[in-house]
Amino acid sequence: MTLWLVLAVNSITFGGLLFLLSAGFSLIFGLMRIPNLTHGSLFMLGAYFGATFIGGYLALHFDFWIAALLAALLVAAFGAVVERLLLRQLPGQPLAQVLVTLGISFMAADFCLLVWGGDPINVATPAHLAGFVRAGPAVFPLYRLAVIVIAMVIALALWLLLDRTRLGAMIRAGVDDPDMARVVGIRVSQLFTIVFALGSGLAAFAGIIGAPILSVYPGLDQDMLPLALVVVILGGSGSLLGSFVGSIIVGFIYNFGQALFPELAYFVLFMPMLLVLLLRPQGLFGRFVP
Amino acid sequence: MSVKVTRRKFMAATAAGAALAAVKFPAPAIAQNAPFKLGLLTVKTGPLAQGGIQMEQGIVTFLKEKNYTFAGRKVEFISADTGGNPAGTKTKAQELIERDKVDTIVGPLAAFELLAITDYIAQQKTPLLSLAAAEDMTQRRPNPYFLRASATSSQAMHPMADYAAKELKLKRMITISEDFAFGYEQMGGFQQTFEDNGGKILKKLWPPIVTPDYAPYLAQIADCDGVCQGFAGSNPLRFLKQYAAAGLKFPVVTGETGGDDALLRSFGDEAVGLYSACPYTLDLNTESNKRFVAAMNKDYGVDPGFYCAGLYVNGMVVEAGLQKTGGKSDDKTALMAAMKSVALTDTPRGPIKFDHLGNVIGEIFIRRVEKAGNKYINKTLKTYHNVSQFWTYDEKKFLEQPVYSRNYPPLKS
Amino acid sequence: MTPLRLIALAIAALALATLPYWMSGIYYVNVASQILFFAVFALGLNVLAGYGGLVSLGHAALFGISAYATGYILQAGFGHPVAIIGALVVGVASMALYAVLSLRSTGIGFIMITLALGEILWGLAYRWISVTNGDNGINLHGRPAPFGIELTTATAFYYTTLVVFALAVVMVAIFVRSPLGAALKGTRDQPRRMNALGYHVWAIRFWACLFSGLLTSLSGILFVYYTQFISPQTLALTSSAEVLLMVISGGAGTLLGPIVGAGLVVIVKSVVSGFLERWNFLLGAIFVAIVILMPEGLVPGTARLWRLAWRRARGGGAPS
Asked: What angle do CA C270, C276, C278 make, to 5 degrees?
């Protein structure tokens, strides 16, 4: 009984982290139809930068949340530059997009190794969130519960952005029909830069928020990218609700799948992904078929 | 942290010439005055880079201490980055042997890298000293050109189990380790000795190598009196953090990688109380270790761990072997025999010698992580002497049982 | 073919045929062998990604399957001919299954399905220990000796690889100029029109997949005989990404492109990594530079820049 409860709560909290990771990917993929294979690297860069701002590497000791915001802004700026200089030249050329996003991820991974070395970096849980919540024999780390709260806040903020602002309306128009959007006078290319920057910033924010749980280490990018892909495929492309629900579902599959079917732990995420792609390619709430 | 190696300019010049000229130059080598070429197979890119960088630091520290001279001969050191995959390891091994004509190779890092080149090494009769813990390399499929001065996967786990059962008085433990050969072999060794001493393993958990969140496994750790983990690389840090965050308080024991001294600088309070068994321990009071640690602190500003010390000791073995052959390295088989017969008393890991299969017989240290001021240290609690890869088991019987795997030894129901 | 191209081809053929004699050292002959069988792999992927517009991010899994099949059959005690034929059969059959599953989608959906399939097969390589021996891998002992010629030396193996490579190039050249090849390019550019014209788009793609599977299996077999070892790392996502990068950086949809791309990646990984510690960064930077300067790939891009320079040298004016 305790086991089910603990697994269920872990599923939701892990889902929260996955939402932060994949929201950006889903936005970028939804609007620009670009599978951003740099996404894992952006997550990792956010984690490394955030750890640096917190940990006093450059004689800087920022508060955890400020560090997270700074890291997100820094990587968002980087994302904007990448979009303007590189991706903008390649609309509708998936091969070149794959080449450039993978090329950047190689460079980012080696850059992190050069600057921060091979040792893992321990990011301490923010002091006011370092406790436990107990429910009988079950123990839940406070920070993980905080992560789901953060995910919900971000989800709400993104929903308000998409649903209640002009920018959001333009983004939704661009997702549904980019050509018509252009015809109606929407500056789609500017939108692309904004969305790519937003997506990158979200990934970086996820990286540092996840750091007290995952730590920061070389290879973090390759570990997290497949998870983002699974969430977006399951939940549906270009849909915020899809990302959120997809993240929770993946959280459940990850936790219950590995606990109940340990022999299949390697396949527990990719089998459902394959099934969804074969049977319902647009995912649960997707607005289009990838 | 890139290490500038002096040979790089030399290699750049040679290779530039080779690439442009593409013409064979017959080069007669005057054997005695030709430098002794030592190659290193390591990983400097990708997720395995942590251990790989430390390996290079260890061997370079030894070379510097000896002023790049072994037994009166100048040593030329060539470092090769395998990229952490078996095909790359094969390519780099070929580069070292066929292009650079090395006399001995130290490395590679991972077991699967070693297995990719074991036949090739034997064919080329090039002595190889590696940290890779794959058991059968010195057990059921021994390679006569392979020497291991560190430990097999289970070599440190046998004494750990002994300590856990006898000193910590643990009786019902759960094991958790990555789902690959190194994990199986560590946990298998632990289980065998633990159960021989009256203990019982309740559950064996095997998270896949890529598991960002251990929560589904941590949720299954309950109703026991201890946990044995065998994580490697940067995973021990993540595991311990998540373990502590999940409110688990059972004592944790681990092997050489799970409590590595090099991770002490990354650990936090969650690691305090971790018991580990390792062939190397930072606070060992031998002359060579004091020199070694001081040099590492000076050159790299870090404390060495298992990977650094392992390569440093490999360097010592190579040097001692070369002393025995009088500096001659033309006859690789003789050099190999000389290295295998090396017995040293003053090394950073204490006295060592090799068994007839090429694996080390040495000391295993039981340590516990403690906080000293605002640093974390591994305090050595007990030393097991003369530990071989077979522990106290009869060699013949041990080799007759299958290699430790996911299901061997089987769980007692 | 223009006389210039014919001469260039003749020179290249001559250089390749005599390579062991002018290349300094066995090591570089081995690098050349690697470039050649990775080129065969890249040519195989190019059939799908370049000519068919179907980007597969799981191709390394198929490469690995034929390598594992070779190792497994040899370990079971059979000889090399059985192993090679068996591996080809298993490889192409796996490709057929792979195609049936992935061809339900196109575009990004195809990429995602192939990625998922690749990851599943990679996991299978780790867990199906009775067949694959897990991450300890399978060691091979020795190479085949066709017609009594031992292939254990680097030079002998190089010539074998060269023969297979030449065969592969010829096969792809014939394929591209064949009706099936033209139809495949049609389905890449205008799938709906092709459908309307009565072409069975799915079947065309399926046969292209089988052809790709054949080339991929050939390269997998050469790979496993070269390294004498196979383990799950070969099926990882990074390996699939690497071969895809070879195709794209060289020039997808061209004959020479994948070959140049294979050369680029192998040389940076194996040779440049000896002098430059940050070779991974360099490789990424090269890819980004290619996208900026010649997004269509090195080969078409160089050809375009060459024509531009030639035209300028001739004094500008009307395009040739």
From this structure: 100
